[in-house]
Amino acid sequence: MLKHTIGLLALAPLLALGQDTTNISEVIINQNRLQIPFHKDNRNIEILTAEQIKQLPARNLNEVLGLLNGVDLRQRGPFGTQADISIDGGSFDQTLVLLNGAKVSDPQTGHHSLNLPIPLDAIERIEVLRGAAARIYGANALTGALNIVTKTVEKTSIQANVYTGSSFKNRDEEQKDGIYYMAGTQLGASWYKEKHQHQLFYNLDKSNGQRYNTASENQKVFYQGNVDLDEKNQVEWLGSYIYNSFGANGFYAAPGDRDSKEVVETVFASVSSKHQLSERFYLSPRINNRYNEDVYEYNPNAISRHFNNTFSAELNSRYSTRFGDFGFGLESRLERINSNNMGNRERNNHGAYTEFRTERLENIILTVGAYLNYNTQYGWQLYPGFDFGYKLTPQLTIVANAGSSQRIPTFTDLYINQATSIGNSSLLPEDAWQAEGALKFNDENIIAHAGFFYRKINNFVDWVRYAATGPFRAENLGENEMRGVNTNFVYSIPSDNLLKFKLNIGYNYLNPSFKSAENAISRYRIESLKHQAKLILMANRSDWSASVANRFNQRVSNTSYMLTDLRIAYNLANVSIYADAQNIFDVTYIESGAIPMPGRWYTLGLRFQASR
C-alpha cells in the first residue's frame, strides 16, 4: 500500500524531455477526406505529439502506446518483441492500425498488427480514435483506430541514439549464467531541399531475455521521401522493413510451447499524392502493399509457415461548398495468404464512402456519412454514422456520436489448424453498434473530455474450449455488450519562468457483459480491462528534464498492478543524455497469458543530432 501511495504522488511530476511546442488544438486530424482541426472534432480522439513521445520514459512504440488513455497494450515480451493492442475493452483484432491513413493491420492475425518498422524519431504524432470508426476507415475499425503519422523533413540533419539497460539481476532460476540485459541503437539522416525531402532510419534492438527462451532481436529500416511538384501538387512515398525474431516461451500455447520460436518479417511500401485541383476540389490517390512472413516453431516437428500479402488502392476527395464540405472516395483491398496449415486463401474487399460536414448552423458542428462495403467472402454491409457537437460556450462543447461497424474474421480465425488452435470456416463477421455522449473543453491551457459510451457486438468471436485441456476453437459466442466511462484532462500550467509544466490525467471504467455458451473457457476475454488510471505532469527547462509516469490497470479477473517509470535527462546543444528507471517499485505483473513481465529496469542512453 505504501509504495502505491508513493506512486500516486509520483504521478504528479511527469516531467518532460524538451518543450512541446505543438498547438494540439490546431492539429488537422488525418481522416483522408475531410480536414478537421482537433478542437472542432466531435469524436473521442487523443493525440500524442513527437515532443511528448520524446519526453516519455519509453524506448519503442509499444511502450509509448501503453501510456495512452483507453488503450490496453498487452505485451508478451518487453522492448517491442510482441504485443496486442485493443481499445475500450475490445479484442486485439477489433482495432484498426494505420500509417499515415493507410491500413497496415495484418489479415493473418491481429497478433502482428504492431509489427511496425517505424522508429520513434520518425513519428510526428499518434492519433487514437475511439469508438466505431467504420464510417471513416471501413471494415475492421470496430472499436477504434490507431493512426501513426510520420514527420515531414524540415532540415538536413544526422542523428544517432544508443542505449543499453539491465535489471542487474540474473535471469530466471534456470538461467543463472548471466545478467538480463538489452541494448539498441538508432541511426538516422534527413536531407532537405526546397522541392524534395528524404529521411532514412535504421534501428537494432537485442536482448538475452528475462526468462528461458525469450531472447529477441529486432531490426527496422524506414525510408520516406516526398516531392513538391508545385504549390498545389505533392507526391509522397515510403518503404519499410522489419525483422523480428524471438523465443516464444509461453506466448501462445503454454505450457507446451516452452521451446517455441518465432520470426516475423514485414515489408510495407506506399505511394500517395495530393492535388488541390481547384479552390474547392481536393483529390488524393494512394496505393500501398504489405507483405508479411511468419514462421512459428512450436517444436521441431510442428512448424507453421505463413506468407500473406495485402495490396490496397484508394481514392479520397473533398469538395467544399458554402453549405459545408463533402468527402467521398473509393477503396479496394486484396488479401492473400499461403500457409502450410491454413492453405492458399484469398479474398477481396471493396468500399465506397461519403461524408458531409457543416458548421453553418449556429453553434452546431455536424458530420454525417456512410461507408458501403463489399467483401467477396461475406457480401454487402453498410456502416452509417454521425457526429454532432453543440457549443455551449466558445470553450465548452457537448458532443454525441453513433455508428455501426464490422470486423471480418482473420485467416487465423477461419482456417488455422494446429495442436492448440482450430479455426472455424463458418464464422460470421462481428457486427457492432456504438453510441457516445460527452463534454469537451478546449482553451489555451486546458483540453478535457468526459464521456459515456455503450457498445453492442453481435456474433462476437472468441477462442474457447470446454475442458481444461485440448485445443481452443474460434466461435461466434452471441452478444458482447460494453458500457464505459472515459475521462481525460490535459493542463498546460501557465508560467513566465523557463520551467514549463504540463499535467495529463485519465481514468477509464469498463463494464462488460457477455452472452456465451455455458462452461466455455475463454483464451482472451477474462483479462480485459475494468479500471485504468494514468496521470502525467510534464515539466522542463532548456538544459535538463525529468519524467515520472504511473499507470494503474485492473482487469475483469480483478488482477491489478501499478507501474511507475522515471526519466532524467540533461540536454546540451546537440547531445542529450538520459537515464530511465522503469517499474521502479519492482512490481510483479502479467499483461498477457502467463508471461511475467520484467521487474525494476534501468536504461542509459545518449542521443546526438546535428543539422544545418
Automatic annotation (TrEMBL):
<protein>
    <submittedName>
        <fullName>TonB-dependent receptor</fullName>
    </submittedName>
</protein>
<dbReference type="InterPro" id="IPR012910">
    <property type="entry name" value="Plug_dom"/>
</dbReference>
<dbReference type="Pfam" id="PF07715">
    <property type="entry name" value="Plug"/>
</dbReference>
<keyword id="KW-0813">Transport</keyword>
<keyword id="KW-0812">Transmembrane</keyword>
<keyword id="KW-0675">Receptor</keyword>
<keyword id="KW-1134">Transmembrane beta strand</keyword>
<keyword id="KW-0472">Membrane</keyword>
<dbReference type="Pfam" id="PF00593">
    <property type="entry name" value="TonB_dep_Rec_b-barrel"/>
</dbReference>
<feature type="domain" description="TonB-dependent receptor-like beta-barrel">
    <location>
        <begin position="183"/>
        <end position="584"/>
    </location>
</feature>
<dbReference type="InterPro" id="IPR036942">
    <property type="entry name" value="Beta-barrel_TonB_sf"/>
</dbReference>
<dbReference type="InterPro" id="IPR037066">
    <property type="entry name" value="Plug_dom_sf"/>
</dbReference>
<comment type="similarity">
    <text>Belongs to the TonB-dependent receptor family.</text>
</comment>
<dbReference type="InterPro" id="IPR000531">
    <property type="entry name" value="Beta-barrel_TonB"/>
</dbReference>
<keyword id="KW-0998">Cell outer membrane</keyword>
<keyword id="KW-0798">TonB box</keyword>
<feature type="domain" description="TonB-dependent receptor plug">
    <location>
        <begin position="44"/>
        <end position="145"/>
    </location>
</feature>
<keyword id="KW-0732">Signal</keyword>
<dbReference type="InterPro" id="IPR039426">
    <property type="entry name" value="TonB-dep_rcpt-like"/>
</dbReference>
